[in-house]
Design a protein that fits this description.
Elements (H helix, E strand, L loop, with lengths): L9 E6 L12 H15 L4 E5 L8 E4 L2 E5 L2 H6 L8 H26 L3 E7 L4 H13 L6 E7 L10 H7 L1 E4 L2 H11 L4 E2 L14 H8 L5 E6 L8 H13 L4 E6 L6 H10 L4 E4 L6 H10 L5 E4 L5 H10 L2 E4 L8 H8 L4 E3 L14 E2 L5 H13 L1 H15 L4 H18 L10 H8 L3
Parallel strand pairs: 1-2, 1-5, 2-4, 5-6, 6-7, 7-8, 9-10, 9-13, 10-12, 11-12, 13-14, 14-15
Antiparallel strand pairs: 3-4
Helix pairs in contact: 3-4, 7-11, 8-9, 8-13, 12-14
């Protein structure tokens, strides 16, 4: 009889260095884990996030069906900047403590109720702990009551990972077909592609009056880019494109938000080399009104660097109000930003790697090179063709609806169901499950 997971027979564990605390939200991984946990919770499943949490937060807290279990708090007190401060020290502590904690705090209590535990581990930081967890589960005769997925978001750190071992003990997944092909080509590992997603709540064109307020701040084009300062994010190409657009008379205004990375120096030097008028805006407590005031004050500048955290609602508004949004990474495993832009009926400029959803001049602007001349030419074409501009925006928002977290979770559930049934896992949640588990396992 085919068995499907449900809130009655399954609980989830998410293992990740990043997580939902502000201290732990550094990049896309923290967003992925937070949103994945939200959709699991929304579907009625209990879930536990094991992560490097903020030292000032409690060791364990609960919101609805989600338990947040914070690790390495003692070490984090020594390194208050963010989750990656004291990274190796935290990793050593994580590998020693997380596997036992998952078993004691989740697997055993769940098994006693006849409930299966599905473990979703993220990226290279969790690789050794997954191997250790598998070993401990086998020693305790509990392995058959856990389904384990180990997900690759990025190739960073994989050189130190025992991929062959991981592939032999759990299901390896990636976030896109592009990454699946990369892992097969480079490491000869077959992985399952389970996409990222965007929250359904962000889909929809922003309020027209608010968009008009932003657009009224500037005369000319509004372009935008939000990404960490890294050469992979193709900042130089974006800056050179702005300079070309200015030469062509489009009067571009580039709103950019980077980070504290050292590559920022190279970006700023390029701006100055191209004689673009540039300013950095810092706001302690940004509000809609204070950001708009800054836009008006610096309306004659070519490039405005937003040196502050942009609230999500304002960022989504910018995506919809801008003429174009650069998400043009040279290497992008998935490309959430491109989808977020589409969700707000904006036009995303994406690269040629992991954005499986992007079709050039249909729902986005997808480039096959790193040439600013190519970008300037295509942007000019879209700006002059109002019908094409409108069509791309409309197709983009329809595409975004197909890549929500509920769709991604549906694919994940199908994969879990297939594994449980293919390998004849115990019929969790059945009347006899508890007796069966006690006979089989030393718990």
């Amino acid at each position: 009889m085919f068995q499907r997971i449900s809130p009655n027979n399954t609980t989830f564990v998410l293992l990740s260095f990043e997580g939902p605390d502000k201290y732990s939200l550094v990049g896309g991984l923290g967003t992925r884990v937070s949103e994945l946990s939200n959709i699991i919770d929304f579907n009625g499943f209990e879930n536990h996030i094991f992560f490097i949490g903020a030292p000032y937060m409690p060791e364990v807290s609960k919101i609805k069906n989600t338990w947040r279990r914070r690790f390495c708090r003692r070490i984090s007190m020594k390194y208050p900047d963010n989750v990656y401060s004291g990274e190796l020290e935290k990793l050593d502590e994580w590998n020693k403590t997380a596997p036992e904690s998952v078993i004691e705090q989740v697997v055993i209590p769940s098994a006693r109720k006849g409930i299966m535990t599905v473990i979703l581990a993220e990226d290279w930081h969790t690789s050794e702990s997954v191997i250790r967890l598998d070993q401990l589960l086998r020693e305790k005769n509990l392995r058959e009551y856990c389904v384990i997925f180990w997900n690759i978001n990025n190739e960073y750190g994989l050189s130190a990972v025992n991929l062959k071992k991981l592939a032999s003990i759990c299901t390896v997944t990636t976030v896109s077909e592009f990454m699946k092909k990369r892992i097969r080509q480079i490491y000869s590992i077959d992985a399952a592609a389970i996409p990222n997603g965007i929250p359904s709540r962000i889909i929809g064109e922003p309020d027209q009056k608010l968009k008009d307020i932003i657009r009224s701040c500037f005369q000319g084009m509004i372009l935008q880019k939000v990404a960490r300062y890294d050469s992979d994010k193709n900042w130089i190409c974006a800056i050179e494109t702005i300079a070309l657009l200015k030469q062509k008379g489009f009067a571009p205004h580039f709103l950019m938000r980077g980070g504290a990375q050292s590559y920022r120096t190279e970006v700023i030097c390029k701006i100055l080399d191209l004689n673009l008028k540039y300013v950095t805006v810092s706001l302690k407590n940004p509000t809609f009104e204070s950001i708009i005031e800054s836009f008006i004050r610096y309306k004659n500048f070519d490039i405005i660097e937003l040196d502050f955290f942009i609230p999500e609602d304002f960022l989504m508004l910018l995506y919809g109000a801008a003429d174009m949004v650069f998400a043009n990474s040279t290497y992008e495993p998935f490309g959430i930003v491109g989808l977020e832009v589409m969700a707000k009926k904006g036009i995303a400029i994406v690269g040629k790697t992991g954005e499986d959803y992007a079709v050039n001049l249909k729902n986005s602007l997808r480039t096959d090179s790193e040439s600013p001349e190519e970008l300037e030419e295509i942007i000019s074409k879209i700006m002059k063709d109002k019908q094409l501009n409108s069509d791309i925006r409309e197709a983009g928002i329809q595409t975004a609806k197909s890549f929500t977290w509920d769709k991604a979770f549906s694919i994940l559930r199908q994969n879990i169901d297939a594994i449980i049934n293919a390998y004849n896992y115990p019929k969790t949640g059945s009347d006899s499950a508890e007796d069966f588990l006690f006979k089989k396992a030393a718990i």
